Amino acid sequence: MSSNSRERHGAWVYFESDHWDVEGTVSQDKVLELATDRAASFYEDDFLEITDVEFRIEPLRFWLVTFKKAGVDEEFYTQP
């Protein structure tokens, strides 16, 4: 895929750009709020604990939030 192009995958449209200097539009606090709500709803568990928060830039910029279920050694992931 070339610079500044887009590609459709089902209902999702992905954009690729050479512009890596774009500022983030959401704070980490807001990311944690959105991710916690989404994970609680998706996994049907209001007691998931956040274990890690990462801002990744490849293959595209996104936040990855890792959760752990209380009392269990299994991790869960979400992107807000």
Describe this structure in words.
- The chain is globular and about 35 Å long.
- Strand 1 and strand 2 form a beta hairpin.
- It has a domain of 55 residues.
- Helix content is 19%, strand content 39%.
- The strands form two sheets. A three-stranded antiparallel beta sheet has the order 3-4-5, covered by helices on one side.
- It is built from one helix and five strands; from the N terminus they run E-E-H-E-E-E.
- It starts with a strand and ends with a strand.
- It is of the alpha+beta class.
The overall pLDDT, averaged over residues, is 75
The low-confidence parts are none
Please, how many helices?
1
Overall geometry comes to: globular
Q: Give me the count of strands.
A: 5
**Strand order, biggest sheet?**
3-4-5
Report strand %.
Answer: 35-45%
Helix content: 10-25%
Strand/helix succession: EEHEEE
Structural classification: alpha+beta
- The N- to C-terminal Cα distance equals 25 Å
Largest sheet: 3 strands, antiparallel
Radius of gyration: 15 Å
Summarize the structure.
With 80 residues, the protein is α+β, with helices and mostly antiparallel strands.
Identify the notable features of this structure and list them briefly:
three-stranded antiparallel beta sheet; 1 helix; two-stranded antiparallel ribbon; 19% helix; alpha+beta; 80 residues
Secondary-structure topology with pairs:
Layout (H helix, E strand, L loop, with lengths): L4 E5 L2 E5 L11 H15 L5 E9 L5 E8 L5 E4 L2
Antiparallel strand pairs: 1-2, 3-4, 4-5
